[in-house]
Amino acid sequence: MNLLDAVIILFIAIFAWKGFRNGLVKEVFRIVGLVLAVFVAFQYANFAGSIIGALFNIQDFYLPYIGFALLFIAAQIAVHVSIVFLDKLIQLLLLSIPNRLFGSLFGVLKSSLIVSIMLIFAAGFGFSGSDIQKESLFYKPMLKVAPASYDIVARVLPGVKPYRDSVERYLSVPEASNK
User: Fold this and answer.
1) Which of 4, 104, 117, 155 sits 20 to 30 Å CA-CA off 32?
2) What is the pTM of this model?
3) Domain limits of the chain?
4) pLDDT tens-digit readout, 3-34
């Protein structure tokens, strides 16, 4: 285990604790919102990047990344607003130990998705292939979480291409499906 693994474990532990505090109901809505935000951002990053490029009259390799980030943030804001309203309803429920334990599990899932997105972005900006990543126990498994969650959503929605087909054509991302 190296420094990257320790950072990943710490990040996941923090989200597990937050999930325990929030409970299952909030965490389910948050992770569903996160997966949908990832899906929307991956699906429309190129389109959003081209709009940004046209609005500001710029041509840049990073426009799809900027489009991804803006779409992701907008989707997360929409989810957060929905959760605020949901929170008022949840206050009527007593948070039991099973609700909190399952909330912790969902916190782990959510943090794994966030770590995966950050690792893909880092690789897209040229931060890949280091000895720290090669020696890491968690780097490769974490790298696969975002593409796997995208593919799960793509299987449910008709006409949506898998991660590999829809994203790699315009984003320079690491080969997440290789072992």
Assistant:
1) 4
2) 0.59
3) 3-167
4) 888 999 999 999 999 988 888 877 788 778 88
